[in-house]
User: What shape does this take?
Amino acid sequence: MGKIKISEVFYSLQGEGQYVGVPSIFLRTFGCNFTCSGFGMPRGELSTERDAIDPRAYNDYRELPLVSTGCDSYASWDPRFKELSPLLEVSAIIDRFKELLPDQKFGRDKHLIITGGEPLLGWQRSYPELLDQCIRMGLTHLTFETNGTQMLSQDLIKYLDDIACHQDIEITFSISAKLPCSGEKWEDAIRPDVVKHYCDIHNHRSYFKFVVSTQQDVDDAHRATNDYRAAGINIPVYLMPVGGVNSVYELNERQVADYCRDNGLRFSPRIQVPLYKNAWGT
Assistant: This one.
């Protein structure tokens, strides 16, 4: 029986990207290779806001405070919070899905989103077992929300190809490649060699989602897009405003939306921020 270390399992509306508004189960795994401490900070500075949060003061993931700078899902990778993320057997995860899903079933308008952290780090070997059971529950669409830096194992490639070809499962890689505003290094974050790997999966519906705030961020998004296209990766590109809390998100939402409109680009909102205040479990 496979196991996965889980930060959150919840049912909500997809808030970002190509499938905004679709009811979805979110499986948030623990662990990430990035910290994204630059979000919401002046270029070149890193947030330390999460460091002031004492994990000993909390017994439940949902009680953790939100942060206005840095990664808004910090507890899904910061090892100080690992005790709040249980290592669950696949059967226990499936039981939780059944509790959350209307009629205990997936469907065309009830997706599964495997997110993080970075969901392609250490749990790939357990996904076939998990997905086999989800398919028996009616799963038709799967999204991996990834930073686009982790290669797929040959076993997972073979499995995903098989369910895409023979069971008509649509597979999306929502690739939130990290620009310098995240605080991560370009050479570590912009990996066309890895993303091309994802796009070889049959029946995929992949896209990029770049978090931006300033014109410099937008210029970086164009540069990254050009790098990916030079490698033969020509998938849709969305620009999305930075901000895990309303006070930050509202500062740049209209600005990014207007830029996308005026330049013929795709805009992605973050509807979980105005609707649910980006609370854990939304």
About this structure: The domain at 3-276 is CATH 3.20.20.70 (TIM Barrel). The CA atoms of residues 225 and 237 lie 8 Å apart.
